[in-house]
Amino acid sequence: MPDFPAITFRPLAPDDLPMLHRWLNNPAVTRWWYPAPGFDEVVAKYLPRIAGTAPVYPFVASAGDTPFGYLQWYRLAENPGHPAAAWAGSGAAAVDLLIGEDAYRGRGLGATMLRAFVRTVVFADPGITTCFIDPHPENVAAIRSYRRAGFRELGIGAVTADSDAAWLLRWEREEDGTG
Hints:
Layout: E1 7-11, H1 17-24, H2 27-30, H3 39-51, E2 57-63, E3 66-75, E4 92-99, H4 109-122, E5 130-133, H5 140-149, E6 152-156, E7 167-172, H6 173-176
Parallel strand pairs: 4-5
Antiparallel strand pairs: 1-2, 2-3, 3-4, 5-7, 6-7
Helix pairs in contact: 1-3, 4-5
């Protein structure tokens, strides 16, 4: 992997919504994330998260001064429809991510970004002891990246009527030595 500046995380802000909209409409993202939303849909979904009125915590990842990715985490107790709900205890969270800038994709940066995010943001909450991630089973590049980051595979998760199958991976705080 080429040398990149240190990865930092900051909460998503209203001024980031045009950038997030662009990322969510990138074909490399829509292939695995969800259908491309209109700008009004992005505003409606992400402003409550920014305001703290929705139980999802949104962040922007930057390399140096350049934003390149989006991550979010949430407690599974507040999202019982998640595919990991059957394995989740009260200290369980889940994370989702995307690399929005093409120049940062395919360089191994996803594992580095995810590892740092789980360790410094998700596990910063002392009540979180387990973190899940649930890529599509055919997204093998993401699954490899998540394993490199520190997640261990559980296999296919529950499928709800309105979603695809999910390949579940889990990271236990105690396995990492972070708490």
